[in-house]
Structures are given as structure tokens and as C-alpha cells.
Amino acid sequence: MRILEIVSGVTVCGATVHTLQIAKELHRRGNAITLMGKPGAWIIEQARAAGIPTLESRLKRLPLRDLKAAAQFVREAEIEVLLAHMSGANNFAVWLSRLAKVPVVLRAHAHTVHFHWRMAHHIIAVSEQTRRYHITRNLVPPSRISTVHGFVDPERLVVPDKGARQVVRAELGLSPSDFVVGVIGNIIPRKGQIYLVRALPKVVTRCPQVRVLLVGVTHPPRYGEQVKREAARLGVSETVLWLGERRDVPRLLQALDLYALPTLSDMLPMAMLEAMWAEVPVLATDAGGIPEAIIDGVNGWLVPPKDPNALASALIEIIENPEERARRAQNAHQRLQESFTVQPQVAKIETILKRVVEQSSC
I want to staple 130 with a disulfide (CB 3.0 to 4.6 A). Which of 9, 125, 208, 249 is the partner? Predict the structure, then answer.
């Protein structure tokens, strides 16, 4: 197939990493794929390095210059289908589809109410819970939306340095005896980092060796300040390390004893899946699509959202039970091997794209 894949994200995040992995695998499977993104975007550089043709566009609908240029490329390259990721690209792609007269498939990474969902020929949801959301809230016909779960690329997670755990801890000023909890993902209200901070006083009293790494971009800044003020008020500021954006997450995972996700709402976070693959135990909330990967008591711990007491109790249990941590972490890795790796998942995406092309040509 001749595919134009469009993404509007500029920085490294779960959605842009997934987009790149999809592009690479579709390319490996023999498709003629071109990746379109914004000028200077991280993913454009990565795609070029992988030998994937790229196009740069501001992805602006008005004035029509960007849409007309993209439509001309679609016609000249005889593109058969568009595959778009993230809101800006989704919005751009549905209008490009109309202008260039090619079908468009949108990948649903988020819960948003928007008209572009109903303009798509098909939608690929990253979790079953996300699929239900779009059927209910955006009135997408069930026949036009499928679930293909998020995934990991094992090759991306290879860390050649077997001593990375000790090296990374030393870089961060952590001791070998510290119990290190990583919270990886943008520091935004929806991710619920403040509830983990509120759980810490009870945990630190029982387990003073605990350290929490907050990894990601803070947005808006006032939320980060709110979390810092709360940590200061509770006397746990020294327990929390703010690392900002990191581009070495696979390496950073080696230093963790636990991955925590105190989110209020989520689809199927890539960082959580990567922690599962790396056999880092997972403590998450029973929210969104998370229970589709984590089964409480089997391959991780699940607690209700917005519940610092539940988080504290689970953290203490996890810290004090190393054998149970190892058991559930091994089960999580096995679960990823069975259902959440790049090649089988992208094969499902390819099948959907082919079906959409065939239906549009009838």
C-alpha cells in the first residue's frame, strides 16, 4: 500500500513514539509509507534516520496552502490511504481526505469530543475502553471503529549496559538501598501525581528509603507548582526528584523498583507497557484502558483513582514484599509478550488499512 502517515506531535511522547514504530513496521512489511509532521519535530528526524521518506507541514487548515500542498503530494504519489495520529493531525487529515479524495483512518490516543471522529472512514482505538468512549460520546458507528491495543517495541527497550541500574542511580544521587518509584509521563492534572505525593507521608514513616522520580514535561506550570507546594506542606519534598523530560526512558527503567501511575483517566499508557516489558512492577489506578493490561493480584497492583490512602497501603505492601513484586513483574512481561508487541499489532493495523482501501475503491 501507499500510505501517508500524519502526526502533529513535536516532542517525544507515547503517541509520537507509537507513530514512529508503526511507520517503521509498515515500511518493513513492504508498504510505501511517507511520514508527514511539523518542521523540526522529533519524529521527522527519527523517521529520516530509519530511511522512511518524510514531508514537513505546519498542518494548518487555513489558509488552504498546507492542505493544497498535501493534496498535490497525495495525487502525485498515488497515496491510497491516510493514517493520522493526535488531534491536530486528525483534524488536518479528514479535510485532506475530502480534498484529495482518499480514505482516512484516525488512531484514537485520547478521549476528546470532536467532529473529526465522525468524518473518518475508520478509527483505531488504543483500548477497548477508548472504543466505547467514541461510540458513546462521538456517536461513531461501531462498524467504523476497531480496537488495536497499544504496544511496545522490544528492540527500543534493549539496554546494552548491564550495569545501567547502578550507573543511573549514581547519576541521580540515589543509593543502592533506596526504593525507587518512577512516575513517567507528562506532569499534568489528569495524570494525578499530586495524589501520589499525598500518599507519601504514610509511606515514608514506614519505609523511609522510598524515593519518587517525576519524569516528564510539566503542563501547565501552575500544576507543577501545586504539586511542589503540596510536597513541601507534607514534609516530603526531599523524597521527590523532578527529572523533567528524558529521552533515555529504557535506560531509566533499569534504575526503578516500581513504576507508578496514579492517573485519573488514561487510555493505555505506553510508559506503563514499557515498564511491564522491562519487568518493573506496576502500581496503577483502575482507570480507562489500564485494566485491559494490568490484572490486580496477577501482574500488577490496581487502586481506585484519587485515593492517597489506597496508594499508600499498596506502596507499603509492594516495598515489603520483594518476592511478590518479582512474581507479578514476570507475569506482566509474559502478558506483553503474548498480546502487546509491535509486529502483531501493526499487522492488525495494516489489515484495517487494506480493508478501508478496498471498501473505498468499490
Answer: 125
